[in-house]
Specification:
There is one protein chain. This protein is mainly alpha-helical. It contains 13 helices and no strands. It has helices at 20-36, 38-59, 95-131, 133-147, 151-162, 166-176, 178-192, 196-203, 208-216, 221-244, 256-263, 272-299, 301-305.
Length: 306
């Protein structure tokens, strides 16, 4: 009689311990969810455009009509016009060019902060969920204490200890988001680790490390992917808030939150100083939120059936 193969929850036979069909189809589901949702598709295109702008302004700054860091006091606080589409700031720098260059910092902070929180959160959540016992108690109580403090206040406290700077802002934003990923991964693993295919992996002698990273974590990918997509928008907002308070990127670098903070004193005299950076933040955060909705729809079996 042929030996019966252990299967994952979706009924896919394990091949060498890995649900290959499921691993390949999850990204197809993500793509399908984005394409089927018009708002999500438009958001994805918008984000791709932002990424292209960030790359072009990083490696080919000569394409910009003005140097975003060059001061020209003779054109201080010039309103939007054909020469300066978004106007100029108090130092005479072109706001349009600075908003474009600001995409570099915004996307970098969002992606880097999520990478930190995702990596650490997945590791801690995996240990808490799979090992249980004292490990679970200690790790999750620390996560609960972090969650008890509003994320932006905790980020400000960390920045006060580390000092201002974009690299330190990335660390602070990444640290405050760790509990969210840890709790998601832990809750998923608590149910997954009781399945038959995990027990079968133990019987054949796989180590705990191999079981978690080859059999358990792949089945938490849908929740992790959705949370990470939405987490980028949260990281961008937190970075803008720190920049607004003067704790993030430091002059003369162009960052949308810092531009908002420096323009607030000229709100009535030169409102464009806050309008255009504010719109950039709003549209970018909205785009990532709508993209996350499309990703969630693609990975949600109930949504795919509707």
């Amino acid at each position: 009689m042929a030996k019966k193969l252990a299967t994952e929850p979706n009924g896919v036979a394990l091949q060498g311990g890995q649900p290959k069909e499921k691993r390949e189809s999850i990204w197809k589901d993500v793509f399908a969810g984005i394409v089927s949702n018009k708002a999500s598709l438009i958001s994805a295109i918008f984000i791709i455009v932002l990424a292209l702008i960030a790359l072009v302004t990083k490696f080919f700054p000569q394409v910009l009509p003005y140097d975003p860091y060059a001061q020209n006091l003779s054109e201080s606080l010039v309103g939007p016009s054909a020469a300066h589409w978004f106007g100029t700031d108090i130092q005479g720098r072109d706001i349009f060019c600075r908003v474009l260059v600001g995409t570099q910092i915004t996307l970098t902070v969002g992606l880097a902060a999520v990478a930190i929180s995702l990596t650490v959160g997945v590791i801690l959540g995996s240990i808490a969920g799979y090992k249980g016992g004292k490990w679970d108690t200690v790790i999750m109580r620390i996560m609960d204490m972090m969650l008890a403090i509003p994320s932006i206040l905790l980020a400000i406290a960390i920045m006060a200890a580390l000092g201002p700077g974009i690299e330190k802002a990335v660390i602070a934003i990444g640290l405050v988001s760790i509990p969210e990923y840890a709790r998601i991964v832990r809750s998923e693993i608590l149910s997954i680790k009781e399945n038959d295919y995990v027990a079968a992996a133990r019987v054949v002698g796989n180590s705990n490390f191999a079981i978690v990273f080859r059999h358990v974590l792949p089945n938490t990918l849908p929740s992790i992917i959705v949370r990470a997509t939405l987490g980028i928008s949260t990281a961008i907002l937190d970075a803008a808030a720190l920049g607004f308070l003067g704790l993030g990127v430091q002059p003369p670098a162009a960052e949308w939150g810092d531009m908002l903070g420096r323009g607030r004193n000229e709100l009535f005299q030169a409102p464009w100083l806050m309008i255009f950076p504010g719109l950039a933040i709003t549209l970018t955060v909205l785009a990532f939120n709508l993209l996350g909705d499309g990703v969630r729809d693609g990975l949600d079996p109930k949504a795919r059936k509707r």
